[in-house]
Design goal:
Elements lengths: L2 H23 L6 H7 E3 L4 E3 L2 E3 L2 E3 L6 H10 L10 H17 L5
Antiparallel strand pairs: 1-4, 2-3
């Protein structure tokens, strides 16, 4: 039994949770809809010899709002940062780690 597929399923689940947290906390304002439409999560894990993972966050392929997301997250010379990606990841990571540790055969 290999752990990668089981861990991959957990990664996909928690990538979805992180994306939902991002959607719920993305700053409001004119670019909100574009950024909101760009937030995605992987529907299948990427499995490598080192393990499995799934991505979540603003995706330029999903919507041009991903371009705006970086300015919201990190700020500009004229705008303070309004992070939503980092906090969503920070909130989701401990839950994901706990779920992976609870997998059988780990």
């Amino acid at each position: 039994v290999t752990i990668a597929p089981k861990a991959g399923a957990v990664a996909v689940t928690f990538a979805g949770k992180a994306a939902e947290r991002m959607r719920n906390t993305v700053p409001t304002g004119p670019p909100r809809l574009h950024v909101l439409n760009s937030i995605t999560s992987d529907q299948a894990p990427t499995v490598t010899p080192a393990g499995a993972y799934a991505d979540a966050g603003p995706d330029p392929a999903a919507d041009e709002g991903a371009f705006v997301a970086r300015f919201l997250e990190h700020g500009t010379v004229k705008m303070s940062p309004r992070p939503f990606v980092g906090p969503a990841g920070d909130a989701t990571l401990p839950e994901c780690v706990k779920a992976v540790r609870e997998l059988p055969d780990l």
